[in-house]
Amino acid sequence: MRRPARFDVLCSPRALTWIERVYAEAASGEGGAEGHGFAATNARYLRRVLEDFIPTHALDPKFGLGNGLFRAKGARWRVVWAASSAKGTAIVLLVGHRKDGDRNDVYALLDRILATEEFDDLFAWLGATKPKPRSG
């Protein structure tokens, strides 16, 4: 059986800020990042997605959002990325919570950011067309 290609995973500055916050909260909790609290669980989830899931599922259509973006979901968490087979790289654009109707919902935030130039350089580097916001 052929193993799927492993993609390199990079993070946008915005995603990295979220990830660092989650890891810091876990490290400061009881038992550190390997503890059993809510923060430690979040940190373990993100680590699995970043180190195991995205590298092997970067372009899997089962996880597509339909506009050249992909997502992993776990409980309320969403990790959204874009990927290029030519570069063998996935770039995590956003990490956040899913709460439909909330201004800070990860997909609402994604739409607002896609309406700006924040990710333009990342899409250009991937050689991908930046998707249009769903709401606009």
Characterization of this structure:
By secondary structure, this protein is an alpha+beta fold. It is built from 4 helices and 4 strands. The protein has helices spanning 13-28, 38-57, 106-114, 120-126, and strands at 8-11, 69-74, 77-84, 89-97. It has a 4-stranded mixed beta sheet. Strand 2 and strand 3 form a beta hairpin. Helix 1 packs antiparallel against helix 2 (38-57). The model has no long low-confidence stretch (mean pLDDT 86).
Summarize the structure.
The chain has 136 residues and is an alpha+beta fold. It has helices spanning 13-28, 38-57, 106-114, 120-126, and strands at 8-11, 69-74, 77-84, 89-97.
- Per DSSP, the total helix count is 4
Oligomer: single chain
Along the chain, the helix and strand elements come as EHHEEEHH
Mean pLDDT: 86
Describe how the helices and strands are arranged.
Elements: E1 8-11, H1 13-28, H2 38-57, E2 69-74, E3 77-84, E4 89-97, H3 106-114, H4 120-126
Parallel strand pairs: 1-4
Antiparallel strand pairs: 2-3, 3-4
Give a quick set of tags describing it.
single chain, 136 residues, alpha+beta, 4-stranded mixed β-sheet, 4 helices, 4 strands
